[in-house]
Amino acid sequence: MPTGFDYLGQDKALQQHWLKRFVAILIDAIIIYVPTVVFISMIGGRYLSAGLLSGGALFLYSSLFDYAVGGTIGKLLMRMKAVAMKGSLSFSQALMRNATKVFGLLLLLDWVIGMAVETKDPRQKWTDQLAHTSVIAHDHPGGV
Question: Which of 13, 14, 57, 125 has the most Cβ atoms closer than 10 angstroms to its Cβ?
Answer without folding.
Answer: 125
